[in-house]
Write a structure and sequence with these properties.
The structure is a single chain. It contains 11 helices and 12 strands. By secondary structure, the chain is of the alpha/beta class. It folds into 2 domains: 294 residues, Alkaline Phosphatase, subunit A (3-Layer(aba) Sandwich), CATH 3.40.720; 49 residues, no CATH class. Helix 8 runs parallel beside helix 9. The termini are close together. The relative contact order is 0.22.
């Protein structure tokens, strides 16, 4: 339930490469599935059963505990009209929420601008990882990009305090207000000063953090631990973004996919437990997506680019369960060898924007999309 006491935050996890939806939420009683995937099918003996016909990948045990607690929503058949099998174009569509044309901003960048229209807080949105994902980009919207929270900040290798303070003073004079700069230099100046201020604020988060949860030493787990530290520090961050890569499973899928989902499921479960330990489990919703699914037919040891994916929304505020129907695998219902989408991904965006973040989704998505009754109110 969203109340004035809650501090609703959204954590978005991107599964880069195109996660295989069929071997994530497995139609293990479906003969077409087994016939199409003779090399990489999962059987009823090793899936984690959910409802007698669908089961989770066997490496997703930690997420099954979230399902059992009613905190995991599985949105089936996720996609968009006229699916594109290019990583770059499909990811751009998910990042901008525009499938008909190339947009100039990301949906989360627009969300951050709505949350903080005057850009008073330079860390309203943070990416944990390298670069700045297109989803977070919007003109005039500052977003911090953090590789490692423990070392994040300016000049972390300068050990001598006096030397560091001198360097900071030079930096501040370089990027401080100056009415004589032209527009381009002023933009660079504002970006630089924003980075400086963000680093200064975020430097306090690790020192305030203490937890009994022991995250694994893999990048996705460390990113979620960093997100927990910042969320618990109450520095005003509302939108968190991170990525988990390696889902382009053209070969060796069974082993690679299992490893990826073990890492992610364990990390997500630890993250939710961490928030719970600190009494903040009601403050966060996590959304997990990938740019597309994979083809129904395997290629011998893996799967090629397809459509009809799966998305997850989870956390204490989420009404767990299945949303939407699993796409038919019947050849007459396939889309050129792929599962047809039956849920527009922007319906998930609209749901978390409206029901969780308290934002009019039409302001962000430029159109009304059917929402799911997914958030406890």
């Amino acid at each position: 339930m969203v109340t004035a006491q809650l501090k609703p935050s959204l954590i978005v996890i991107q599964l880069s490469g195109g996660n295989d939806a069929m071997n994530t939420v497995v139609p293990y009683t479906n003969g077409i599935y087994h016939d199409s995937r003779r090399a990489i099918h999962l059987t009823e003996h090793n899936v984690i059963d959910l409802n007698g016909t669908l089961g989770l990948n066997p490496s997703m045990g930690p997420m099954k505990s979230l399902w059992d607690a009613g905190k995991l929503a599985i949105v089936q058949g996720v996609g968009y009209p006229q699916p594109n099998r290019s990583h770059f174009r499909s990811m751009d569509i998910w990042h901008t929420a525009e499938s008909d044309h190339i947009a100039d901003s990301g949906w989360l960048g627009r969300t951050i601008r709505e949350l903080d229209p005057e850009a008073k807080n330079v860390i309203t949105g943070i990416n944990f990882g390298r670069g700045l994902p297109r989803a977070l980009h919007a003109k005039g919207v500052p977003v911090a990009s953090v590789g490692n929270l423990e070392t994040y900040g300016l000049m972390p290798d300068i050990a001598d305090r006096m030397t560091r303070e001198m360097a900071v003073d030079v930096f501040a004079r370089m990027y401080g207000p100056d009415d004589t700069r032209d527009a381009m230099l002023q933009t660079i100046s504002e970006t630089g000063m924003g980075a400086y201020l963000g680093a200064d604020i975020l430097r306090t988060a690790p020192a305030q953090y203490s937890s009994s949860i022991e995250y694994e030493g893999v990048p996705i787990a460390q990113s979620l631990r960093d997100i927990s530290q910042v969320l618990l520090a109450d520095v005003g961050t509302r939108v968190f973004y991170t990525q988990h890569g390696g889902y382009d499973t053209h070969a060796g899928e069974l082993e690679n996919h299992a490893k990826l989902w073990h890492e992610l499921s364990t990390a997500v479960n630890d993250f939710i437990a961490d928030l719970e330990e600190h009494g903040r489990g009601d403050d966060a919703v996590v959304m997990i997506f990938s740019e597309f699914g994979r083809r129904i037919q395997d290629n011998g040891s893996g799967t090629d680019h397809g459509s009809g994916g799966v998305a997850f929304v989870l956390g204490n505020p989420v009404k767990g369960g299945f949303y939407g129907e699993y796409p038919s695998l019947d050849p007459s219902e396939q889309l050129e060898g792929d599962m047809k989408f039956n849920n527009d991904f922007r319906g998930i965006y609209a749901t978390v924007l409206d029901q969780w973040m308290g934002i009019n989704p039409q302001e962000i998505l430029n159109k009304n999309y059917e929402q799911f009754d997914m958030i406890r109110r």
